[in-house]
Every structure is written in C-alpha cells, then in structure tokens.
Known about the structure:
This protein is an all-alpha fold and about 120 residues long. The protein has one domain. Helix content is about 90%, strand content about 0%. The radius of gyration is 19 Å and the shape is elongated. The relative contact order is 0.13.
Amino acid sequence: MTLLSWILILVNCLVYLAFKGMATVGNRVLGKETLHRRWVGALGVIAFAALTAWFARAYLVNDDLQSNLSDVQQARYAGRIIGFFLAPSIVVLAVVAFRGWRNTRKRENARAAVQA
C-alpha cells in the first residue's frame, strides 16, 4: 500500500469518528438514544467516499488520454483511479461492520448468561 492509501484510511477513520461524535452530541441534546452512532459514522464515511470518487473522476482522470482508448479500456482506466480512492473507505467500513457484529454477539452472550 502506498502512503496515500494509508493517509486515506486515516482520513476515513477521522471522518467516522467525527460523525460518530456528532451522533453522540445529538443523542445528548435529544436526551435519548435516537441516533445510532455506528450508523451515523458509517454514513459519514460513505459520504466522504462519494466525494472522493467524484473528485477523482472530475479532476484526476485525463480526458485526452481516455479519448484515445477503447470503451473497455476507458472503463478500466477510470475504474482503477476511482477504485484507488474507494478502497480505504471499504476497509474502514469493513472494520466498523466487524466491530458491530462482535459487540452484538458479546451482548447476546451476556444476556444468555444472565438468563441461564
């Protein structure tokens, strides 16, 4: 992985934590657990991923080079550039999903132990 990939993973983590923090503040203001922190954080990462994909397509894909390629090669060229910026978001979302699954299993096991 390149340095840019690691930086994008770090930025995605910071976006996740910022949106998760906003959900926590929103829950405190509302006085009840209305916003699920993990979901709001994941939506923030998805929004950031969409923004980076748009930026990559709009500013990093060379239209002159792309016009000389066949349709399949054009799709590959744009897809590789956009995919490079989307991969760190997928990594962060996979970690978030795994942690949510793991925490849910822990809670279910704790409930089963209390009921037994």
